[in-house]
Write a structure and sequence with these properties.
- The protein is an alpha+beta fold and 354 residues long.
- The two termini are 37 Å apart.
- It has a 5-stranded antiparallel β-sheet with strand order 1-11-12-10-13. A 5-stranded antiparallel β-sheet has the order 8-7-6-5-9, with helices on one face. Strands 2-4-3 form a 3-stranded antiparallel β-sheet.
- 31% of the residues lie in helices and 23% in strands.
- The chain is globular, with a radius of gyration of 27 Å.
- The chain folds into 4 domains: 67 residues, Winged helix-like DNA-binding domain superfamily/Winged helix DNA-binding domain (Arc Repressor Mutant, subunit A, Orthogonal Bundle), CATH 1.10.10.10; 58 residues, no CATH class; 88 residues, SH3 type barrels (Roll); 91 residues, 2-Layer Sandwich (Alpha-Beta Plaits), CATH 3.30.70.240.
- Strand 11 and strand 12 form a beta hairpin.
Length: 354
Amino acid sequence: MALRPIPRPKVPRVGRPKAKFSQSRRFDHLRAALEAHPDGLTLDDMAAMLHVTTRTVRRYLPELAILTDLEPIPAREGGQSVWRIKPSERGRKVPLRRTQAYGLLATRRIFDVLKGSALYDEIDVALRQVEQIAHLPASRTTLRGEAPSDGRLEDRFAFVPPVPRTYANRSEDVDELFQAVAELRVLRFRYSKDARGTRIRSHPYALVLHAGSIACVARDLDQGATRVFILDAMSELSAEAERFELPPDFQIADWLHGDFGVARAPRTVKLLVEFDQRAADAVRARRIHPSQKVAVAADGRVRVSMSVPESADVLSEVRRWLLGFGAEARVIEPRDLADSIAHELRRAASRYEA
């Protein structure tokens, strides 16, 4: 089957064209310039930095003042007055426009898995402050493309994550795990997935919210191996006073495998799957794994290739994904996975035989 790469669709571009200094970019550049010059800048200085007139800068300053407290410093004799961010506000606020605030609010459901913990309460406080920014009134639209403050966009722009597990009855464990990761403290716990609930002493490197559950990437000090531990199987968590240093080569991206979970293995498995035309649109529309590559044939069939770690948990998720396509998918590589899928489909078909 001759394959060719899928071309990018040619569609009209929506919105303002990207430029080095579009209006919104100038606005952000102005704020960054004032942050970098605590003594303040004159109108001429700011106009030169932004390549605009001083009249335009005068128009930007009130808009920036909506998000960050500014103050004018009276001019010295023979000199120009300057504008600066108030010292009490420097480094304490993250300026957001309403559109940016609505974008953050759309993701708030991601943290539902943490409900009941002090960590969730802290995040909820921050998001409530973001919501106040989203509702901040303005006498006029400050920037082209800016969302209005009275449209209740936070109720109409949302991200829906997978249904989360509930850890409300384990709020102390969630907070203990987070503090150990955040402060790089040695963590002890019992892990029920190991034989007889092995006691683990670990260096917790990272915390991952995935598919509605909580996972921890940690170094098992007794086994001398870095592993993934699922909070559901962890108990008797206790963070010690002893601290550790994070390995300089640790990258959480090496452990994240899209819909297939959190894992790492010494070896990888090359996966090659052919999908019928009926499943082509669904396959092409989703990037299920970071290494995913898609090729299309003239008759509409597609082939997907990717490299996944040779991990039992990941391969189990791969099998579940493939079985969901039924007869519309055919595994080409690896052969043992193809045989396993075929056996499972035959077992399923036998249950419907008369």
